[in-house]
Input
Amino acid sequence: MEEEILLKQEKEQICILTLNRPQVMNAFNFDLLHALKREIDSIRFRRDIRVVIITGAGDRAFCAGADLKERATMPEDKVREFIYTIRNLFTDISNLPKPVIAAVNGVALGGGTELALACDIRIASENATLGLTETRLAIIPGAGGTQRLPRIVGVAKAKELIFTGKRVSAKEALDIGLVNRICTLENLLSECEKLAMEICETGPIAIEQAKYAINKGIEVDINTGLAIESNAYWITIPTEDRLEGLRAFKEKRKPNYKGK
Output
């Protein structure tokens, strides 16, 4: 029986998705893109899943980007289809109304770094290497890298990294703000799960609206951003969760949020 190309594990309110092509450093082909899209589309409407963690199989690679052997066989129109598919998938991940954590467990190059950039939080193992290396193949990042990287590390640093196709270590990625934190490879998933469990203690609707306000607000001037924040706040006011939070605070107990 052929091994599954994408593995899924659910732990309480956390879903762990593992890119499972370790023989090619978890590189993306069409099949893997389509499998990941199906899971993201399914998770979008599941109230029982609060946080998603994306990682790669094995201890060498998170994702080495596009499968270049497959790419070499593609006519130009198929390449365009691949780029369209991966760009839209990463946008769907970025817009997922739940936090997404990238557990970067090794090499993350090209589309692998772009996948990490599309996630909300990036935690990397000490052996991780990241980089948008596309210019060394005479192309450019095509799955959001030219847009997301400058918003995370700043325009000048993003230009340096993209123009040179430089790979950075986990330590340098942390120093420039490309990843949130680093840890040993052995502790990577447990660190991501610990963070996910902390998020699961908060109000689901509040998290959804906070992510929306941040993502949309960062694209506009501050006054428009404040208006987006205001509207997002209004959505939380009539919820049962808000009242539960107040009761729990008064009664000195943990709240029991239901996403209502």
Remarks:
- The beta strands are 6-11, 14-19, 51-56, 61-63, 100-104, 107-109, 121-125, 129-131, 168-169, 181-183.
- The chain has two domains: 6-200, 204-251.
- Residues 76-95 form the longest helix (20 residues).
